[in-house]
Design brief:
single chain, mainly alpha, 2 domains, 66% helix
Amino acid sequence: MTFVQFLVLFAIIGGIIGIYIATMYLNKAVAVPESCKKAYDEAQSCVACGLQGSCSIAGNEDRFKDAIEFMKEAKL
């Protein structure tokens, strides 16, 4: 791999990382729509897992209430 190829590869990877960081920054600058506030607040307070889209608790909150409270207390 020549030096020029290395620089091109470095520029491409740096550009992808830069776009990601800019997207995250711009996403935080946008307010949550009113129609989504309730779901957003529920998602921010859920500590059951770190997996998006695979929540087994949705709709079964009463059944898992003790487990959720335990996880909140055991959080380091």
